[in-house]
């Protein structure tokens, strides 16, 4: 896969996505936690509740009682679990030296209970502006249907980072465009007709190969 050509093909088709929609860095952090196991509509409701309560602030979340946070983020689902994670990440956000090496910040985030690689990398890329490519289910599905197999999350991340310029805005847009591709075309049951990557990437793989995955 020529990642840059794929990126340009998606950009031509869908246009700029402008991710992540947020008014502050911590709002991005909160969104990354709240979006776990739910859709973005529910996250927006929870974010809206936090904003109305003037609680969309790392220091306030870190100091607030867990029950108060639970009520505010209830629309996001798994709200008891997420309230604890949000408080832990808020404490980290308040105390962390955000000018440190990306690898060190990533290790710290991954040490927080409930923060996996996708969540950590979303925070690093969208909140802290670090060139870390986010891998999600849409990315793995797209790769699999084009005959690309890597070992685990890190294998896919390396595949993109080694073949793309280390540019934060490019990483943001490419990730968002892949999500849009996954919603419109690269679904669980693929819609190959009209896919912007079909001509570019399917030349080496018969259509039946794609449909079988």
Structure report:
By secondary structure, the chain is mainly alpha-helical. The protein has 2 domains: 3-17 and 134-211, Orthogonal Bundle (Endonuclease Iii, domain 2); 25-127, Hypothetical protein, domain 2 (Endonuclease III, domain 1, Orthogonal Bundle). Helix content is 61%, strand content 0%. The protein is built from 13 helices and no strands. It has helices spanning 3-14, 25-34, 40-52, 58-63, 66-72, 79-95, 102-110, 117-127, 137-145, 152-161, 168-184, 198-201, 207-211. Helix 2 runs antiparallel to helix 8. The chain is globular.
Quick synopsis:
The chain is mostly helical and 213 residues long.
Topology:
Elements lengths: L2 H12 L10 H10 L5 H13 L5 H6 L2 H7 L6 H17 L6 H9 L6 H11 L9 H9 L6 H10 L6 H17 L13 H4 L5 H5 L2
Under CATH, the topology of the largest domain is which?
A: Endonuclease III, domain 1
Let me know the largest β-sheet.
none
Flag low-confidence runs.
Answer: 202-213
Number of domains: 2
What is the C-level CATH assignment of the largest domain?
A: Mainly Alpha
Number of strands: 0
Task: Tell me, rounded to a whole number, the average pLDDT.
Answer: 92
Features of the shown structure:
single chain, 213 residues, mainly alpha, Endonuclease Iii, domain 2, Endonuclease III, domain 1, 2 domains, 13 helices, 61% helix, disordered C terminus
